[in-house]
Amino acid sequence: MTAHDTPTLRMPGGGISRRPLHLILLADCSGGMKGEKIQALNYAIADMLAQLAIWDRAQEQAQVFVRAVAFATEAVWHIPAPTPVVDLRWRPLQPVPRGLTNMGTAFQLVAEALAPGRIERRALRPALLLITDGLATDPPGRFEAGLNALLATPAGRGALRLSVAIGRDARSEALNRFIGDPSVPVLVADSTSDISDRLVVASLAVSRMSEAGADRAALADRLFGHGGPGDSIFGQDTII
């Protein structure tokens, strides 16, 4: 039986079970992330997941499941199985000495996880969060191949795709291409102390923009500050 064949689940007493909301983190573990950066990232992710768990417990319609990919020269699953956010205890990421920032293989892993039949038909739109401190270093054609594979899946193409750039040097056209939505900016953390703040916005976007029937454009205006001076959560720190 595939996920598409799974019958609608009901809670005790006859209520309909909550709809899955799959969040997949793509975390840069290249050599440049060593030291303070990886420590700050691990702290920020753990804090973000704790906030999402609070949101999850209050929901009647959605249940958050988390997976994570760690990428450097190669990409591997850090959390391979969809895990309820309320049950998850974050296991710290470790940087890869002299590891590169190859994103295409990470996209390929996620594409396979989101292939037809791999997630529930009744699931909400997935959310993908890419976090990196550098420009993509993929061999020629590998970034494009991975991104194309991701966008070739209906779930990947329809996913809410967000990116946090650690340091303004990490901002790049590649991150905009991953997001694929001009209304959603790359969130820039100028310093390690900013990472938690940027992941707060990411978690707000996940919780609000993935809800069924959400007005994506209106929510982007509210979260990312296109409505006018003073409306942005981060003001000039968001890059469109």
Automatic annotation (TrEMBL):
The protein, known as: Uncharacterized conserved protein YegL, contains vWA domain of TerY type
The record's Gene3D superfamilies line, in alphabetical order, gives: von Willebrand factor, type A domain (3.40.50.410)
Domain VWFA, residue spans: 22-204
| SUPFAM superfamilies given in the database record | vWA-like
